[in-house]
Amino acid sequence: MLMDAAERLRPPAALQQHYCAGMPQLGLYGLSENWLLKECGHLHWLAIARAQGMQRPAFADAAGHRSYAALTAVHLREAQLDALGENAPFSLSVRATSPGRARHFSAQTLRSGTLRAARVELLSAFVRRDGGSNRDIVRAPVEGTGNGDPALADAALSLQARARLFRSGEGVARMGLQPVAHGEALCAAAFTPCPHNDFNGAGLLYFASFQALADRAELACFGLRPAITSERELYFYGNIDPGETVRVELLAAREDAADLAHWWRVRRNADGVRIADVLTRKRRLV
After folding, report:
1. Where would I find the H helices in the chain?
2. Model pTM score
3. pLDDT reading at 8 higher than 70
4. CATH label of the domain that carries residue 85
5. Do 126 and 212 share a structural domain?
């Protein structure tokens, strides 16, 4: 049933989900970051549908084409994922807003008991294929309802502004990492994402797979280093088709006794086109 006019203007209550940490949610060093990103992406999708007064997320553009909310930027921060162990109860709360035309933003908080274990911010735009390839992705605007949470406006606009800078190729200094101007990659690794594990139901290389690619490149270049993510930023510009290979390049890195940080750029191997930037800060585990 569609919302009436008053309901459409009222900010929706936070969406809440509760969990118990088991093997699907856990990784070697605590709560799995990859699982968390996937779940936050799913809740972001549900929050958009909820704001539109829909029982199920089934979106189409003005021409009736099936459309999907593609993440353009993700910011995981203040993460203490190693605080969650086996059987730990935890929850995710989601608030959402529309910071601009056809843009959708959600702020999600991970809690376990009294501990705030992470914050995750996601920015998306609706897209569809304009051909048979994942290179033929075009915008497919699905308008916001205007009933988003006004308290999120500054955070949404901040992430949107950073995403615009990274998309332009300018970049900004983040996590103590300086943008690299026309320099050679410090290290690089090539991967062929698995069609069965790395692509989503829409046929796209899933946004959480870019996080996994960065971690695989770190392992390939540096070997195993016990550390857990405390902050991660991902900016997305394109995609690949199943069977294609990507090159993951290290643009900048820093390390000290407490933590390490790195900036990876993901390119399509076939044409060298940049499809993502991934910036990560990890806390060393003793």
Report:
1. 5-9, 33-51, 153-168, 207-222
2. 0.91
3. no
4. 3.10.129.10
5. no
